[in-house]
Amino acid sequence: MNDLIQHWEGEMVISHYDRPAESWIFVGIHSTALGPAAGGTRMMHYASPEDALRDCLKLARGMTMKYAVADFPRGGGKAVIAVPKDLPLEARRELLLRYGKLIKRLNGLFQTGPDVGTSTPDMDVIAETGAPFVFCRSVENGGAGNSSELTAHGVFHAIRATLAHLDGAADWKRRTVLVQGLGNVGARLTELLLIAGARLLVSDTNPELQEKYAADQRVFFIAPAEVFATACDVFAPCALGGILNRETIPQLRCRAVVGAANNQLADSAAASWLHERGILYAPDFVVNVGGAMGITGMEAMRWSAAQAASEVAKIGDTLGRVFRVAAHKQLTTAAAAEKIAAETLARYRST
Ligand code: NAI
Ligand code: PHE
User: Fold this and answer.
1) Pick from 266, 232, 239, 265: which is nearest to 333 by CA?
2) Which CATH architecture has domain 2-61+76-141?
3) If you measure from the C-alpha of residue 55 to the centroid of ligand 2, how many angstroms do you get, rounded to a whole number?
């Protein structure tokens, strides 16, 4: 773990071992150049505390990139709570309350919202402690609710911009999109794409969702193991990260990858492999900022719902800019997005 922290370019790491729940809590503050560090709280089981810390640090950096590309006044951070398998519900609630106290003690240095393994009811529990800046609480508790609706809209705008870049316009009726992961974001994205008229292929590892979508006449269900080798125009990863790697990229039969999952590229070489294969990659941190930006805007900056929706729609324009910079500078799209983020960070640092 020393090595991970030593070689990380972020500002601060807070680590805490929660003895009652036998869980590690890591908070990575990657950058406060644009504003206070904000990012979700991920709660899941990891093979080791090192894996949890690695995930936290990588995700925190992703949040910095996300806000910087969108030019949104928040810095990047992330919290990971590495829980044992099958943590009982009551113990989970107690753990969230202790985590809330920790966030409260940070006094606004880190602002949080939901991520994999946490949801709006969990944000309500964390906020019970009086912890400041807990986004996505329920409407009854003064929040703006779940972020996934806005995230899904952002992904939809990104897919439209990608098709426009490839074909001149999004000719939905002739295009097939494969959505991997039918959770909060993937399910909503599927609905938006169906309304637009796209052909839909869907996949999930959850047996209940498999049954539900296999019975849905509007979509075609793909077995999880066959997702990568299935032909489609756009592959939309909306499950977990690391799925674009040495093994999967050679199998892909899509024209573009545009999805919500954080950290889709397993490593920096993956962006080059996609480029070499002629697959247009829409960098995840450009595509999936909609929820975090929209909800933070509504809860902390008095945006109306209409304003949040119009800011989220701009994700398509930002992505178009990333594609143009990549083509102009002969960079991968991931490198072009990093370049735009770095320029925004440098501009804030010098003012
Ligand atoms: P979720 O947990 O509600 O849904 C994920 C779904 O993926 C689940 O249904 C799960 O069964 C499925 N899944 C897991 N492994 C799979 C596999 N190998 N193949 C197919 N399906 C698989 O998560 P949510 O909120 O929908 O988020 C999805 C992704 O988007 C996550 O990576 C998250 O970090 C990212 N994201 C979510 C945001 C949000 O507002 N919810 C914002 C930004 C990013
Ligand atoms: N899971 C969100 C993301 O990765 C995190 C988030 C949600 C942060 C809402 C702030 C507010 O973008």
Assistant:
1) 265
2) 3-Layer(aba) Sandwich (3.40)
3) 15
C-alpha to C-alpha distance for 99 and 110, rounded to whole angstroms: 12
Closest protein CA for atom 5 of ligand 2: 40
Percent of the chain at pLDDT above 70?
99
pLDDT digits (tens, 9 = 90+) for 232-282: 999 999 998 999 999 999 999 999 999 999 999 999 899 999 999 999 999
Instruction: Give CA–CA dist 39/76, Å, rounded.
Output: 6
Count the neighbouring beta carbons within 10 Å of the beta carbon of residue 237.
25
**Where, residue-wise, is CATH 3.40.50.720 in the chain?**
148-288+318-342
Encode pLDDT of 108-146 as tens digits.
999 999 999 999 999 999 999 999 999 999 999 999 999
Chosen CATH of 148-288+318-342 out of 3.40.50.2300, 3.40.50.720, 3.40.50.300, 3.10.290.10? 3.40.50.720
Residue length of the chain: 351
Asked if residue 117 has its Cβ within 6 Å of ligand 1, the reply is no
**Ligand 1: which of 238, 284, 289 to mutate, judged by most atoms within 8 Å of the beta carbon?**
238
User: What residue's CA is closest to ligand 1, atom 31?
Assistant: 261
On the question of pLDDT at 351 being above 70, the answer is: no
By annotation, the residues acting in catalysis are 78
What is the residue type of 91?
Answer: A
Instruction: State whether the beta carbon of 116 lies less than 6 angstroms from ligand 1.
Output: yes
pTM of the model: 0.94
Report d(CA 76, CA 36) in Å as an integer.
Answer: 8
User: Which part of the chain has CATH 3.40.50.10860?
Assistant: 2-61+76-141
Q: What is the pLDDT of residue 1?
A: 84
* Cβ(259) – ligand 1 distance below 6 Å: no
